Amino acid sequence: MRPLTRRLHLHLVRSAKAVQHLTTFVVAGVSTILVTRLSLALTGYPQIGGDTGLHVAHVLPGGLLMLVATGISLSYVGPGPRPSVALLGGVGFGLFIDEVGKFVTSDNDYFFAPSAAIMYVVFTAFVVGAGAWRRRRPLTDAERVAGAAHVLVDGLAGRLPERRRREALRSLEGVGDQEGAAELRALLAGVRTRPPSLPAQLEHLWHRVGEGFARVSSSRFALPVMGALLLAQTAGATLVVLSLWSSGNRHGLAIAGVLLGAGVSFAFTVTGLWQGRRRGRRAAVESFQRSVLTSLLVTQVFLFAASQFAATAGLVGDLVLLGLVNADLARMRARRPA
Q1: CA pair distance 236, 316, nearest whole angstrom
Q2: Domain shared by 124 and 69, yes or no
């Protein structure tokens, strides 16, 4: 079994920028879906192709954009193309999955009610799975050196922004006598830099967003505020489904799912507030993380089936809370390993 496992192992090197690029992909995809659905609703759902008998579904330009993103990633070396690939791939995937209703119904129903829930599950599973994969273990010294060597590719070609060079040099701090580290420091220090390109500026934007989450989450008021926001999220979802029930719009399974998810989230949140007093901040934030993930993976999924508008607002709130919680946990793990 062990030789077979070794043969099947892909031996891939993880990227320190994976979370930023995956975030760009998801935000681009979700934004594309929202803009597409809004523009179609405002224009009366026109068909590209008119009365010619042809209909160009937007899954086709979505596929072309994903093809372009794949072509760029296979045609260029170094980290420079990654932001553009993430953006184009996200827009293309958003156009593709927006038509999921046509793929899962026999009558090609674009307005299939559970479509929003299906799209939500796909993106949420992608975000949560990528985050769990990234947090499973920190980058090794060898991977940090390999990542710096990847950055050096842009530097040798005269395409490296100064900020990216400083990040690469910082990533080499603490790697000790890892093979190649000293040589990479010298080479990175000597390459000529250039102003950042537009895709690099987009990458820097996500870096600033992460810094903002870290600053806010480190405040002494952050813990009670996160607890209050989690309770407000739970109460809001509950009120929405109860109002739908009272108005006669009774999605029985969706309402039961929302109430179940809201109840579990409420329990995790209250437990976190209690643990913050008894066991310290880290125990509280870990419980808050479970509360947010429950809301993302259970509450909002069923809420999308009942009220897409309310679920979209809940999704934004949950993603902000997840960013705060993860930033707080990352800061505490860096300061004191688990």
Answers
A1: 13
A2: yes
Q: Which of 26-40, 164-178, 246-260 has the lowest mean pLDDT?
A: 246-260
pTM above 0.90, yes or no: no
- Reference 186, options 155, 142, 160; nearest CA is 155
Q: Does residue 250 sit in the same domain as residue 304?
A: yes
Helix (H, G, I), strand (E, B) or coil at 160: strand
Q: Are residues 249 and 184 in the same domain?
A: no
Question: Which SS3 state, helix, strand or coil, does residue 325 take?
Answer: helix
Backbone angles phi, psi at 193, to 5 degrees: -100, 170
Phi, psi of 143 (to 5 degrees): -70, -35
In a domain, 196, yes or no: yes
Q: E-assigned strands of 159-231?
A: none
On whether the CB atoms of residues 258 and 303 are closer than 8 A, the answer is yes
Provide the domain limits for residue 234: 218-335
pLDDT tens, residue by residue, 144-196 = 899 889 888 888 888 888 888 888 888 888 787 888 888 889 899 888 888 87
Tokens 């508008």 -> residue: 309
Quick one: 91 and 185 in the same domain? no
**DSSP assignment, residue 12?**
P
Question: Is pLDDT at 91 greater than 90 in this prediction?
Answer: yes
* Cβ–Cβ < 8 Å for 92, 64: yes
Helix (H) or strand (E) holding 206: helix 198-217
Q: Which of 113, 104, 120 is nearest to 253 (CA)?
A: 113
Establish if 10 belongs to a structural domain.
no
- Give me the pLDDT at residue 107, please: 84
Residues 91 and 113 in one domain: yes
Q: Is 12 domain-assigned? A: no
Is the CB of residue 98 less than 8 Å from the CB of residue 33? yes
The answer to whether residue 180 is domain-embedded is yes
Spatial distance between the Cα atoms of 16 and 147, rounded to a whole number of angstroms? 7
- Do residues 209 and 223 both lie within one domain? no
Structural domains in the chain (count)? 3
State the DSSP code for 62.
H
